[in-house]
Amino acid sequence: MSTEVSGAARHEGFLRRALRRLTASEEQLDAAGLQDQVSEAGATPCRDAARLGHRPVCMVGRLRSVRFEPRTNLPTLEAELYDGTGTVDLVWLGRRRIPGIEPGRSLVVRGRVCEQGSREVIFNPWYELLPAGR
User: Fold this and answer.
1) Where along the chain do its domains lie?
2) What letters, b where the CB count within 10 A reaches 16 and e where it falls short, cover 93-116?
3) What backbone torsions phi and psi does residue 81 show, to the nearest 5 degrees?
4) Please, what sign has the CA dihedral across residues 110, 114, 120, 121?
5) Cα angle at 40 between 36 and 41, to 5 degrees?
6) How far apart are CA 35 and CA 124, in angstroms?
7) Which one of 5, 20, 43, 79 is separated from 96 by 20 to 30 angstroms, measured CA to CA?
């Protein structure tokens, strides 16, 4: 009898997931896919970055935007990393361009999150580019 119940529960879960896929927006589906990548990698979600203080973190996500900030004393390359739960800004000091760092690219980053105003930032993160389409 327990096999029948677990089979029915599994079937109901399948129906719920299928219905959610049919009714969810493209953005919701994308966010869910990114969240799955975060959990598969065992990475820290962006929404939890602020409460971790200055401890080292590993994050996985997709770059939403990349911009070069020309400054007189130190140019910076800034990118926004999105993982489906929130965003963290990545800042490379003294860099004008980094090959592969472009909007839409998925990557793994490691570094220490610090708060700068109302945003979370990782300065000069270690990064690994993930294969395109992931």
Assistant:
1) 26-129
2) eeeeeeeebeeebbbbbebebeee
3) -95, 125
4) negative
5) 120
6) 24
7) 43
Q: Which fold has domain 26-129?
A: OB fold (Dihydrolipoamide Acetyltransferase, E2P) (2.40.50)
Per-residue pLDDT of the chain (134 residues; tens, 9 = 90+): 444 545 545 555 666 666 666 666 677 666 666 666 666 766 788 777 777 777 888 888 889 999 998 877 888 999 999 888 888 999 999 888 999 999 989 899 999 988 888 888 999 999 999 887 65
CA distances from 103 to 4, 82, 121 (A): 48, 11, 17
84 strand-pairing partners: none
Please name which of 16, 26, 82 lies closest in space to residue 49, comparing C-alpha atoms: 82
Which one-letter amino acid corresponds to residue 18?
A
| 38 C-beta neighbours (distance < 10 Å), count | 19
